[in-house]
Amino acid sequence: MSSAPKNSPAAAVTPESLLRQDILSLHAYHVQPSPGMIKLDAMENPYPLPQALREKIAQVAANAEINRYPDAAASGLKERIKAVSGLPAEMDVLLGNGSDEIIQLLAMAVAKPGAVLLSVEPSFVMYKMIAAFTGMNYVGVPLTEDFSLDLPAMLDAIKRHQPALIFLAYPNNPTGNLFDAAAIAEIIAAAPGLVVVDEAYYAFASDSFMPQLGRYPNLLVMRTFSKLGMAGLRLGFLAGGKNWLAQLEKLRLPYNVGVLTQAVAELLLQHHEVLLQQAEQIKQDRIWLHERLVGTVDVRTYPSEANFILFQLPRAGKVFAGLKQRGVLIKNLDGGHPALTDCLRVTVGTAEQNEQFIRALQESIHQYSQEK
Ligand code: PMP
Q: In this structure, is residue 52 part of a structural domain?
């Protein structure tokens, strides 16, 4: 094969010359390599499925017509999702290849020139990244010192920036807390655009905005099945009024949810109780883990309604590295945002993994307190 002639236009094309400047200056979302590690960095459900259910999956996978495109409407799966999610009547769902994809789809839909995507900080970093991908202006309103919503600041920012889209993670990632529901209600009422309550961690939380759908014309609720035990399948959904979803459907790529994901997720949702039971166990173990962290010298913990706990301690970066050396991978948030200085985030694992984590944490803290 011949290459491009030296003086041809093709010869001068480079990523730097061609790509948008804002894309060139982005940092890619970093996923840490983790082979052989105790993996407590990504809010996954640590439990395997019962053997009988795994065999059913094998059957469903064997019979799936992977030579065919998936059911573009995914009607069977959508019905299942509606049945298990407590969707108010008249509400519909739109499916995404993970809820990440839905964030992107929403941003694309509203990204008129100058349109603003507003969220809080610190929160899920993809809101800001996707605002950049889609050419939206991003506004991040700081949370208060204890990571609560700063309602006056939010209302002021809404007035000033007139955001087309607001994302509120409920519970919030990476802080783990549920914001005040009455404050969210005020934000929804004051918003001149859509407010998406992102309930990625709904399975571990004591409250939800799902029942509120229909009470506000501009409220949508987004969820994912990733944290419930299906992170590898990639499936999220957006719930809301048919008027919104019918428009947003136009932007959804027709086959975004694959044959295997549809078939396996539908099966697993028929056995929803298995996943809910695992979530219940994770909630129980969160109490144990929280108590242990509270009892660890120099550690400040934050309350969590999710399947992870945020905590702060001196020399967090070093302790994180010490954990890694001991085979435990968690998330280092130090340096990501000023409010997260010296903060680490640990996902609740199995009882055994949690114990291993606490042991490794205590050893690492001890090691670095000696070093000074
Ligand atoms: N929203 C929040 C608040 C999250 O923390 C995450 C995952 N970290 C997501 C959405 C995206 O999840 P997924 O794409 O796996 O559905």
A: no
